[in-house]
Specification:
Layout (H helix, E strand, L loop, with lengths): L4 E9 L2 E6 L2 E6 L10 E5 L2 E6 L1 H21 L1
């Protein structure tokens, strides 16, 4: 199973970007997409693979949190 997580681009320098994942910043390779600070990207294995709008990103993050909360209730 592959997971791709949305994150907000904070800073871009060449093919690398600082991307915010809920307060955790990671260096991500953005050579596959053109992006600027403030945009949202979907990241898989350290690569931004597509851009998404903020509404879709927030909905995806909400669903992930819902799933994690449900799993926690099972334990």
């Amino acid at each position: 199973m592959c997971l791709a997580i949305p994150g907000k681009v904070i800073k871009v320098e060449g093919s690398q970007a600082d991307v915010d994942f809920g307060g955790v910043l990671r260096k991500i390779n953005v050579s596959l997409v053109e992006t600027v600070p403030g945009e949202w990207v979907v990241v898989h294995a350290g690569f931004a693979i597509e851009k998404i709008d903020e509404e879709e990103a927030q909905e995806t993050l909400r669903l992930w949190q819902e799933l994690l909360d449900f799993e926690e209730q099972l334990n």
